[in-house]
Amino acid sequence: MKYKPANHIQDLQYFGEFGGVNPSISDSSTYTFLSAKTMFDTFEGNADGCYLYSRHSSPSNLYLGEALAAMEGTETANVAASGMGAITGTLLQLCMAGDHVVSSRTIYGGTYAFLKNFAPRLNIETSFVDITKLDLVEAAINEDTKVLFCESVSNPLLEVADIQGLSKIAKKHNIPLVVDNTFSPLSITPAQLGADIVIHSLTKFINGSSDTVGGVTCGTQDFINALRSVNDGANMLLGPTMDSLRSASVLKNMRTLHIRMKQHSKNAMYLAQKFEADGFRTVYPGLPSHPSHELFKKMMNPDYGFGGMLTLDVGTIDKANEFMELMQEENLGYLAVSLGFYKTLFSAPGSSTSSEIPEEEQIEMGLSNGLIRFSIGLDDDIERTYQMMKTCMKKVGLLEAHKA
Ligand SMILES: Cc1ncc(COP(=O)(O)O)c(C=O)c1O
Q: What is the DSSP secondary-structure string of 175-240?
């Protein structure tokens, strides 16, 4: 039976402290105990339902975590103040000095920079591999490897990871498969395909209003308890804690995620087909020309489409900049990093979100500097948007007269 993640969000039921349909926001950093013994037991992790201190957990953060765990089909989840807070906490919980990570080489620039530049300071080394080649992934695993890391749909090249294939390799070597699912919420459910831990930057589609950063780690109760341990939990000790007011607002936005994802996907598919027909090198997992189109189809929960992200290669960074500036001027969207907003966002990743990746490596992984990454918005009339984009393309000389 197909997994229906939006049903799991829909079915959550809340009775707020005063009967509110939204749970009351826990506006406290610390919590009282009626007996000193209960405080002791809570520190020892033995008092269910008692809160200690909000860096550890708070009712509002637990509500949001439970909604995200329901969506991803994991036992539970831990929210963090940013996607990077979730990623770094998770990796540092799994790795000690001397350990090794095998990671996809096409990942978000911040994650790449953490693994490449920061983790080695703690004597944690990473092998970056082409995640679409399972034999290379397996060959990179050694006796010190403690994590296999990838993004389900990669930032910014939109490579698709074969989560079932990677999970088999991870299980064979007894290491966890950690999947960042930021680009494909609802469309792909990595835990159903064998991922052990699923991460999101909530900043993007899940919150969907570009008004906060946030993150989550979804996994087993044991792993989430470990992250929160007062003795050696990475998230408890490093402190990337989301504020309760904010987690309450993210929870509210999550309820429309399925409607938004369908619209993002519908609009992105429309534009991808048009751009490709216009002769542009267009990358979108929904296009049959995408090398992993069939794989995405095999993995996806079909109701939500192929996602809202696409890339277009316009040849040079100068042309990309000219085109993006004009699109912003014409109010087609914003020249901005990030994704999942109601308006289209566009940026050239080579000089922005992936600039942490050295130029030679960008070339090797196929990240050309004329590449524009689009997060397609919720436009009600995408045909109008396309016509306006075409006018911009003509003006900057991207479309020849006969195609215009
Ligand atoms: C795929 C992916 N993962 C993680 C992150 C980091 O998330 P945050 O900016 O919320 O820390 C980003 C941010 O751009 C991202 O695109």
A: --EEEE-TT-TTT--GGGGT-SEEEEETTTTTT-SSS---EEEEE-HHHHHHHT-TTT-HHHHH--
> In the predicted model, is pLDDT for residue 254 greater than 60?
yes
- What are the φ/ψ torsions at residue 32 (nearest 5 degrees)? -85, 155
Distance of alpha carbon 347 from alpha carbon 398, whole angstroms = 17
Q: Which of 155, 159, 209, 216 to mutate to test the pocket of ligand 1 (most atoms within 8 A of CB)?
A: 155
pLDDT mean over 281-292: 97
**Residues belonging to the chain:** 404
Atom of ligand 1 nearest to the CA of 86: 11
- Give the residue-averaged pLDDT of 111-123: 97
Q: Are 217 and 236 in contact (CB under 8 A)?
A: no
Instruction: Let me know: does 201 contact 182? Beta carbons within 8 Å.
Output: yes
DSSP, collapsed to helix, strand or coil, labels residue 56 as coil
Q: Rounded to an integer, what distance in angstroms lies between the CA atom of residue 255 and that of residue 238?
A: 30
CB atoms within 10 A of CB 359: 11
Amino acid at site 31: Y
Q: Rounded to the nearest whole angstrom, what is the distance from the C-alpha of residue 90 to the centroid of ligand 1? A: 14
* Residue 117 CA, ligand 1 centroid: distance in Å: 17
Question: Using one digit for the tens of pLDDT, what is the confidence trace for 370-398?
Answer: 999 999 999 999 999 999 999 999 999 99
> Which tokens hold the place of 86?
């979730």
Instruction: Report the first-to-last Cα separation within the chain, whole angstroms.
Output: 46
